[in-house]
Specification:
By secondary structure, this protein is α/β, with parallel strands linked by helices. It has 2 domains: about 15-55; about 55-140, no CATH class. It has 5 helices and 6 strands; from the N terminus they run E-H-H-E-E-E-H-E-E-H-H. The protein has helices spanning about 20-25, 35-50, 80-85, 115-120, 125-140, and strands spanning about 5-10, 55-60, 65-70, 75, 90-95, 105. The strands form 2 sheets. It has a 4-stranded mixed β-sheet, with helices on one face. A hairpin with a 3-residue loop joins strand 2 and strand 3 (about 65-70). Helix 1 (about 20-25) packs antiparallel against helix 2 (about 35-50) and helix 3 (about 80-85) runs parallel beside helix 5.
């Protein structure tokens, strides 16, 4: 495997998003700035996915012992733990927030539980499989 590698993906948006309603929130001057910014960011995310602009995951390998893994948005810590399980003999250092478009990235198991992070996640629960597949492709086995 090369010293550095990348993989690209476009996870589907949260199915509950209604672009027309989001546009109404943005256009309503009675809404506070905070209540207009979040829908604007969500519309930007939907537009990005329609244009098939991918999320890029990357990694950097040092010898046979260390991997630096770069993930998008605010990923749940379980993704880092999975990465460590996929390459148990390596030290895995994980950094997220490389791409803020997805906002939060919960695990598939977290979606039915709800909560703040799930309520503002821009991706559907399918992102879990896509992200895990990308992590597997980046780490040496």
């Amino acid at each position: 495997m090369p010293a550095g590698s990348r993989t690209k993906s476009c996870p589907p948006p949260t199915p509950a998003f209604d672009p027309a309603k989001l546009r109404e929130h943005v256009a309503n001057n009675q809404n506070t700035a905070a209540n207009r910014i979040r829908p604007s960011m969500t519309l930007g995310w939907i537009d990005r996915l329609e244009k098939r602009t991918p999320i890029i995951l990357s990694s950097l390998q040092f010898n046979d012992v260390v991997s630096l893994l770069h993930l998008p948005a605010e990923c749940f810590v379980e993704y880092q733990l999975r990465a460590q399980q996929l390459a148990p003999t390596r030290f895995i250092a994980t950094a997220a927030y490389g791409d803020g478009g997805p906002w939060y990235i919960p695990t598939k198991e977290a979606y039915p539980l709800g909560g703040y992070e799930v309520s503002v996640a821009n991706c559907s629960d399918e992102v879990d499989n896509i992200l895990t597949t990308g992590i597997k492709a980046l780490l040496p086995t």
